[in-house]
Amino acid sequence: MKKIALSLILGVFAFGVSSAQEIDFGVKGGVNFAKLTGDDVEDADGRTGFHVGLTGEYMFNDTFGLQGEVVYSTQGLQSEDEILGQNVEQVLKLDYINVPVLAKFYIADSGFSIDERPANRFLSK
After folding, report:
1. How far apart are CA 115 and CA 104, in angstroms?
2. b or e along 20-56 (b: 16 or more beta carbons within 10 Å of the residue's beta carbon)?
3. CA-to-CA distance for 69 and 63, rounded, in angstroms?
4. Is the pLDDT of residue 17 over 60?
5. Any bridge partners for residue 27, and if so which?
6. Residues 103, 115: contact at Cβ < 8 Å?
7. Could you tell me which residues come within 8 angstroms of residue 14 by beta carbon, excluding any fewer than 6 positions away?
8. Could you tell me if 48 and 108 are in contact, meaning their C-beta atoms sit under 8 angstroms apart?
């Protein structure tokens, strides 16, 4: 599945380079408030991190496009425990590179789109 998604993204970018009028590139970034859950980490605090990446959107027509992204994201947790009478701080740092591909359906000429990605549907502008 990962190979198919990567091939799709590369194909969209390669096709977009040959017809540069129909593809838009951009950057994205923000803050992450990550928290892990489970029996072994129930008292752990989430790690505040960031994400930053590049996007590219290819429009097939006025109402449908594909958007590929490459996003670096920092996540994890931190906790402080007492072991044998001593305070021990534990930090788990997780760094990810996410490569999502979104199908975008634009609503009339409003500039709003409905984005479709696995398990997520939301309205964006």
Report:
1. 5
2. eeebeeeeeeeebeeeeeeeeeeebebbebebebebb
3. 20
4. no
5. 54
6. yes
7. none
8. no
Which residue did the predictor score with more confidence, 3 or 31? 31
Please give the distance of CA 4 from its chain centroid, rounded to a whole number: 17
CA dist., res. 105 & res. 97, Å (int): 25
pLDDT of residue 64: 87
Contact 9, 45 (CB under 8 A): no
- pTM value surpassing 0.90: no
pLDDT reported for residue 27: 94
- One-letter amino acid at 55 equals T
Asked if 73 and 36 count as a contact pair (C-beta separation under 8 A), the reply is no
- What value does the mean pLDDT of the chain take? 76
